[in-house]
Amino acid sequence: MVDMAFLSALGLTAVAGYLLGAVPFGLVLTRLAGLGDIRTIGSGNIGATNVLRTGRKDLALATLLLDSGKGAIAALGARALAGWDGVDPALPVVAGVAAVIGHNYPVWLRFKGGKGVATTLGVILATAWPVGALACLTWLAMAAAFRYSSLAALTALTLAPVYAVPLAAPVHVAGFALLGLLAWWRHRDNVRRLRAGTETKIGQKKADAG
So where does this one cross the membrane (predicted)? Predict the structure, then answer.
């Protein structure tokens, strides 16, 4: 028999997660700072990496924290609303995945958003922190070694479900694998540029690439 209460909770957390994830903090912060529309410079992305191309490291850091924070809050909020003890792990994972989808396809921006890396890492940290810690370390190591944000992100998010196999529940493995696939889809242009050797490095302006 279908548990209608559980299905209702899944639907509610998914909608709430999506709406929270759809808040475009990078766009809001750069406009408040008088830098105009972040979508008209660099990669056109609303994430922290493109905000960094404005030269405002403080805004890039704030965007990173807020974007990752909304993913974590969506997941933790679902867990809190359902009750911390004995909560089904599917609820925070569904809310987190919905937040990433909201960031990538925000209704407020005609479904043209970011690539969801920071939001995804926030979700992973909030739902399975050991996996999130390893994913963040992977990102840092790859970024330090190669200075490609996209390569670092794809490596970290591809390995996250692998890390989750011994460290988390099957629903985490499935959720993180889905987020990894979504990241690859959103980074398909970056993958082409990486293969061509024209991808922009961290801290490098788009016009200076190649």
Answer: 90-109, 121-142, 162-185
Q: Give pLDDT tens digits for 67-116.
A: 999 999 999 998 887 665 556 888 999 999 999 999 999 999 999 999 99
The backbone region for 145, taken as left when phi is positive above 0, alpha when psi lies in -120 to 50, beta otherwise, is: alpha
Q: What gap in Å lies between CA 191 and CA 143, rounded to an integer?
A: 15
- The CA distance from 180 to 164, in Å, is 12
Q: What is the DSSP letter of 109?
A: G
pLDDT tens digits, one per residue of 138-174: 999 999 999 999 999 999 999 999 999 999 999 999 9
Rounded Cα–Cα distance for residues 82 and 57 (Å): 37
The half-sphere exposure of 40 on its side-chain side, counting CA atoms within 13 A, is 5
As a whole number of angstroms, the distance between CA 75 and CA 96 comes to 5
Domains of the chain, by residue range, sit at 4-208
Residue 67 burial (C-beta neighbours within 10 Å; 0-12, 13-18, 19+): buried
Spell out the residues 6+ positions from residue 8 whose beta carbon is closer than 8 angstroms to its own: none
